[in-house]
Design brief:
The structure is a homodimer. The first copy, chain A, is of the alpha+beta class. Chain A has helices at residues 9-15, 22-32, 40-50, 56-68, 111-122, and strands at residues 38-39, 72-76, 82-86, 93-97, 103-106, 125-136. The first copy, chain A, binds a DNA duplex through α4.
DNA sequence: ATGGTTGCAAACACTTTGCACATGA
DNA sequence: TCATGTGCAAAGTGTTTGCAACCAT
């Protein structure tokens, strides 16, 4: 019998020196099953649907912890709040429709060469960057 | 007698159908004399130095109004708050040192061609974008 | 058993809203 | 004069902190 398990959340947590608690497993489960960055509210709703309850504060703490361990990546869309995504996703950026809120992944932005330029020109060390696009999606342009 | 005035804030306001009040003139004066995007706190301090007092709420309202009129542009550095810059500045991006907080302008990022690609590939209409870099500045790398 | 985790209450930072008064055009 | 702008009080949203109880290992 073949059980192909790409990715085990309990192990992922323990590898990061974190205890595999139901709350943390719930958060990882939610973010594993979506391809768009989620804010705290959406994560909470999804957790409810999964039957995983936890305090708001606990959720914030989990998100911070997982971010520090580089398991999650925070993203901002100029909304005044953070969204989170699995950090393991290959590099990509986002397009956000300002009308309907839809989010599309954008690949192939080749920021790497930009960063190389900046590093050599300015002598800085670039560790992270944000690149997001905003406008109207195909459906909202009429 | 030659008076070379590149830019008159009162006129700029009236052209946007806004009354030229001391509070608004103060905010524009502050942002005119800095080249880095400022947050509400820094703007408030600068206003104090100029002797221009106003309620925190008024400042937020002014910043929102000027943003709507495209006189200012809001920018976010993953700090959980907004910064503001004159919108008239030619397109540029920023490098933020995560250690000392220093901000450097980054030019020549040529996001235009990226946007062209995205538009044709996805059929979306890109109206704005954010592109910021984070890491260690030349002085903070030791 | 014990140190990392969680819940609860409270606080904090940033920003917005409502309404009465004030002021620039 | 009168629509627009401002101050004050209050509230809203997103997030953090302190501390005692709890539970994964």
């Amino acid at each position: 019998m073949f059980s192909i398990k790409i990715h085990n959340c309990s192990d992922e947590l323990r590898n990061a020196d974190l205890k595999a608690t139901p709350a943390r497993l719930g958060v990882l489960a939610v973010l594993e099953h979506t391809d768009k960055p989620l804010d705290v509210q959406s994560i909470t709703s999804s957790l409810h649907r999964l039957g995983v309850m936890m305090d708001r504060v606990t959720l914030f703490r989990i998100l911070n912890t997982l971010t520090q361990k580089s398991i999650l990546k925070p993203i901002q869309f100029n909304e005044g709040k953070l969204r989170y995504e699995y950090a393991a996703k290959p590099e990509h950026h986002h397009f956000v429709c300002e009308k309907c809120g839809q989010i599309e992944d954008i690949e192939d932005c080749n920021v790497g060469s930009l960063i190389k330029n900046i590093s050599s020109k300015k002598g800085v060390l670039v560790k992270r960057h944000s690149l997001e696009f905003f406008g109207l999606c195909a459906d909202c342009q009429d």
